[in-house]
Amino acid sequence: MSNPQQLRYSKEHEWLSAAEDGVSTVGITEHAANALGDVVYVQLPEVGDTVTAGETCGELESTKSVSDLYSPVTGEIVEANQDVVDDPSLVNSAPFEGGWLFKVRVAQEPEDLLSAAEYTDFAS
Amino acid sequence: MSNAPRLTSLDALHRSLGATMTDFAGWDMPLRYTSERDEHHAVRTKAGLFDLSHMGEITVTGPQAAALLDYALVGNIGGVATGRARYTMICREDGGILDDLIVYRLGDTEYMVVANASNAQTVLDALTERAEGFDAAVRDDRDAYALIAVQGPESPGILGSLTDADLDGLKYYAGLPGTVAGVPALIARTGYTGEDGFELFVEPRHAEALWRALTEAGAPAGLVPCGLSCRDTLRLEAGMPLYGHELTTSLTPFDAGLGRVVKFEKEGDFVGRKALEAAAERAAANPPRRLVGLVARGRRVPRAGMTVVAGGEAVGEVTSGAPSPTLGKPLAMAYVDAAHAGPGTEGVGVDVRGTHEPYEVVALPFYKRRK
After folding, report:
1. Which residues form a coiled coil (chain A) (predicted)?
2. What is d(CA B298, CA B360) in angstroms, rounded to the nearest whole number?
3. Average pLDDT, rounded, for chain B
4. Exposed/middle/buried for B162, CB within 10 Å: 0-12, 13-18, 19+?
5. Residues in B touching A61 (Cβ below 8 Å)
6. Do A38 and B233 touch (CB under 8 A)?
7. Do β-strands B175-180 and B85-91 pair in parallel, antiparallel, or remain unpaired?
8. B255-283: per-residue pLDDT in tens?
């Protein structure tokens, strides 16, 4: 599987887009989606919530298990993807596209985010 | 002793198919090949192919084979006709369930006992011990068989294209020796999915050829390889108990709502009789927690071990839970106090990580195929 070049990645398997007007989009990687299996329930942070890099901000539930969702950055939630709440299988079918999870106004980024190449090594 | 996982004779094939593997009772087994939801739907609407070679086969032979099994198990095994199978249990002296089993009568004096992978050694040890004094031999045949199941409404057509065996004459819970795709097999009309289907016991050296033949014959009908993940959601929808979840050594068959498998009327003593008679009386006088179905009104998934609540009180415990691909809602089986166990009981919830999620109490099974 290929990890898009223009994104950066956390060791908790989230991806982060480059900020536009200070806002980045966050999702989980295809590697993480495959490991979870069919995602059946997604609980996302709400607009206005403050999230902290490396801390849990939601839940991803698959047929077999529940996983915490972490935020790769610190900031304020400006949008949660209602499409993925309505149809959690988007996380599996389009993890880097329609299966994005939330948009966050970035206040602070950790220094250890990975490049696509670094993440590919990390996840393999 | 090595702790390396045991591999079935189809292991290389699973890996070549890209299966996600998982440890199951010490075996490395396919969890899923693609999407467990797609595999589940294939079994409900077309057909699915399973490797179940981790199940434990034990052969019991000899003039007193039937007498031994009647003593060792809670069912009436002597009453099973040749070519038929019976669902039964093996219990401890105190009535606790050691395992649930399917026993096939292969001949006048020959039976095959199929145990769950996780309990196969326990069952083998118990049968061996209980065989003392009987003119019967207990043989460990776990390595003698691979087990392939083809399940789903298309399975009779698929299997029929590969065998001359009289499948129409083969009833549910029956088995006969035959040849499938040139491979000698015990063909059994059993399964664990709630669908029509067959289980094929073959020599491990023939398993791969049989799997390939079934895959080829089944492809036009929509047959796909299926892993243990969808097997679990299929059996949950069908309301079938799973050892370690609905059945444990701390429950008697009466506590599990399966008292009908205990045949007190059979001749002679059997292991656990006294304790089970007491359990039956207790269950009649003072109903224990009952095994019920719970259907989620929301979307959060109940899991084994979660507490069932009503009016802020704990009234039961979830034994199995999963999102149901067929119903499109999370389902659970749970043991619930009799007062809250009636279908339609209001106000029942499950504590899902601190939130009380509402559930509807229903009778099992959740899903029944049309015959």
Report:
1. none
2. 10
3. 96
4. buried
5. 300-301
6. no
7. unpaired
8. 999 999 999 999 889 999 999 999 999 99
Q: Nearest by CB to A40, which of B32, B229, B323?
A: B323
Q: Hey, which residues does A24 pair with through a beta bridge?
A: A104
CB B308 within 8 A of CB B315: yes
Does the residue A60 lie in any domain?
A: yes
Burial class (CB in 10 A: 0-12, 13-18, 19+), B351: middle
User: Which of chain A's residues have a Cβ under 8 Å away from the Cβ of B32?
Assistant: 37
ipTM for the predicted complex comes to 0.74
Task: Report the residue from A38, A61, A66 with minimal CB separation from B37.
Answer: A38
| C-beta neighbour count of A7 within 10 angstroms | 22
User: Which segments of chain B have a pLDDT < 50?
Assistant: 1
> What is the rounded CA–CA span in Å between residue B119 and residue B155?
29
Question: Chain B residue closest to A37 (CA)?
Answer: B35
Residues spanned by the domain of A46: 8-109
The CA distance from A63 to the nearest CA of chain B, in Å, is 6
pTM comes to 0.91
The answer to whether the Cβ–Cβ distance between B299 and A37 falls below 8 Å is no
Considering only CB atoms, B301 lies closest to which of A40, A89, A92, namely A40
Report the CATH number that the domain containing residue A25 is assigned in CATH: 2.40.50.100
Is A121 a member of any domain?
A: no
CA distance A47 to B307: 31
> A114 lies in a domain?
no
**A20 occurs within a structural domain:** yes
Residues of A in contact with B233 (CB under 8 A): 63
Helix (H, G, I), strand (E, B) or coil at A62: strand
Tell me the shortest Cα–Cα distance from B309 to chain A, in angstroms: 21
Q: For position B2, what pLDDT does the model report? A: 59
DSSP conformational letter for A46 = P
Extended beta strands in B38-116, E state: 47-51, 56-61, 85-91, 97-107, 110-115
